[in-house]
Fold this protein.
Amino acid sequence: MIEFEVSDKDLLARIGRFRTKSGTVETPIFLPVINPAREVVKPRELWDLFGCNALITNAYIVKKYFGEKAKERGIHGILDFPGVVMTDSGAYQILAYGSVEVTNEEIIRYQEEIDTDIATILDVPTGWGVSSDHAKYTVDETLRRAKELENLRRRMDIAWVGPIQGGCFLNLVASSAREIGNLPFHIHALGSPTPVMEQYLFTVLVDMVLTAKMNAPINRPFHLFGAGHPLIFPLIVVLGCDIFDSAAYSLFARENRYLTDYGTMHLKDLEYLPCSCPVCVKYEPRDLMEMPKDEREKNLSMHNLYVCFSEIRRVKQAISEGRLWEYVEMKSHAHPSLLQALKNLKKYSEYIEKHSPQIKKRGLFFFSSIGLIRPEVTRHVKRLRERYSPPEWAKILILIPDLEAKNTRRRGLYRKIVSAICKKAGLDPGVAHVCFYSPPFGVIPMELAETYPLYQYEYAYPPDIESIKHVAHQILEYINRSQYTTIILLVEDGWSRDLAEIYANGPYRDKIKIERLPLTSGVKKIIS
Ligand SMILES: [Zn+2]
């Protein structure tokens, strides 16, 4: 029985188990592309040396080279691979060469006859740089072919992939995802993102993937065709891609290119091999350069695969620890396009918040204003706005900045601060309500100061200007929906004073009284 069961989640990523007739695979999973006509690394080696239990090959190429023989021996026999085999239909060849001399019906039947585990209809990839009319045609034609599947398929034990088209036309991607999503497919795939990835247009990739994800059934695994550079694994997993495949490990090796999780190097530029896989432990860059081309290609392919599989394991470990955001933020600094793509998640912060876990096993690390996109921040801002109102007795609002070790949140200390401030201003401390303010969460009412994750996080002080503006904005939003008669903002030298400056010349100048945080020297004593 074909099933997808999710056991762990972080952001839109999930650890899942997808059951097929040849075994269960754990997602997120990277499927190496095997060209059965040119096996540089043999499928059996993938199984034996890499513990790789699933791969993808092209049904069109298998048909062309093996024809009837593959029907007799089965795809697992032809490849000598006991794991899960996914077949693509030849759609990529349509994209690359214009047409393929095979019909949807033939390729559906053929995939059943060669006993594949995961099969793909003969979709029509949209491609890149095409007109919207052509893109619309690819969406409609792919949908027509997708609808043919129900009448053509004869076996019920094969999982079928429903490809989503539309390219960079997001309205078409959305309608394609909805229409294909209404059909009984087991997996959805986003077609033709390869040119987008090759040109490092990761911001566009985020838009394409999330548009497809938001419109396709979320309980089905999501496949990204042609994603095989470890550089982008953390980002695409964050976007909710469960399965991805690529021949990059082998194509790059053919051109003497060496993959790392932070980019691609040319072998001739390497003084050292920055990796500890069996290949890199055995050879120096010069050894690789001097060996015969075939041997070098094989060794580089092996190294490239080791790097891909290691990166997947690191991403999965980050999901299980609940620190995928920290991981993707760190990895996104490998290339400006990646960081830009991560920033583009801001557009989707509400969707991401909706699907992210509420509680994690550990506290959060915030490094800069990029962390403001995190679902935990979106959630706090939203909940404070929609569900929180200050206590009825509260007439005076005292806003106290968080210090680095959150010392001002200690009951003994903030009470002393309130009493000192009220004494100085001649106010009644009995009606003073304390809210802490700090990046990244903004306003934290005293009653919530110890709830997760409002206390369980660490922040890299001092905050950048975007984070300060964010906090300033949150304070204003909070004040505007409250009924306090007096508002006192306490500041000390540094970021909290910079924040107060934002109000100095604006319409809130008279409404917000700015006072120096008292007992600051006392706080320092408490810290020591
Ligand atoms: Zn290596």
